Amino acid sequence: MASDEHNSGPPPYKDDFLQACLSANILTFGTYTLKSGRQSPYFFNAGSFHDADLLSAIATAYAHTIIDFLVSNPKIPRPDVIFGPAYKGIPLAVCTLLELRRIDRTSWGKVKYSFNRKEKKDHGEGGGIVGAALQGSNVLVIDDVITAGTAMRETIETVKKEAGKVVGFVVAVDRMEKIPSANDNDGKPRPSAMGQIRKEYRVPTASIVTLDDLIDLLRRAGDEKDMERLQEYKSRYRASD
């Protein structure tokens, strides 16, 4: 019997991640003013993954997303370093690397982690990088949510200055919305921040979930009101990529 796309649901790790986000109010629905000024019908706060069970849920989701990402893109070099931009990216990189090692010790046991300091130290070991050196390394970056792309660019430039190479960028949520502009309601097509980074830096990207996954989550839960609000938001700010 042919499978029904709408009944099959997401992979278990993705569904477990979404359920963990809902149960801990990491993913909430309502009306939220973003930094861009947009009124978003949902909010995702990765900073609330602060107990062991929640860290396990997000680490598992990142790990499986990364594995699927590399399998689907065999030309991407095997990462030498998992990099977590300060500050939210730091625990995400550490717990994800531990989960990757648990899943496949042979492939991930010797992979390192690293993160940046917001301000460089001029004493002790000094410098702006903590953990593994990035020189000559293939670097996979983990972050939470990307909207404008500023943090992505800063991270790519940081890695480049340290003579490393960013080979991929993985986030928790892809908002699938166009880059904000001064006249945000002009109706003009623009790419998403992730799409612009892919084009500008030729860096492949992936996410645990997308806005479409959130809409499907609400559809399966029978929450038509919030589902319609997310669909309206997507229609209004849909990215061109």
The string of secondary-structure elements, in order, is: HHEEHEHHEEEHEHEHH
Strand runs, count: 8
Number of helices: 9
Helix content: 40-55%
**Average of pLDDT:** 90
Beta-strand fraction estimate: 15-25%
C-alpha Rg, in Å?
A: 18 Å
Low-pLDDT runs? 1-7
Taken from the alpha-carbon principal axes, the silhouette is globular
How are the strands of the biggest sheet laid out side by side?
5-4-3-6-7-8
Structural class by SSE content: alpha/beta
Q: Terminal Cα separation, in Å?
A: 34 Å
Largest sheet: 6 strands, mixed
Structure description:
The chain is α/β, with parallel strands linked by helices and 241 residues long. 42% of the residues lie in helices and 23% in strands. The strands form two sheets. A six-stranded mixed beta sheet has the order 5-4-3-6-7-8. Strand 1 (27-33) and strand 2 form a beta hairpin. Helix 2 packs antiparallel against helix 3 (52-72), helix 3 (52-72) crosses helix 4 and helix 8 (211-221) runs antiparallel to helix 9 (224-237). The radius of gyration is 18 Å and the shape is globular. It starts with a helix and ends with a helix.
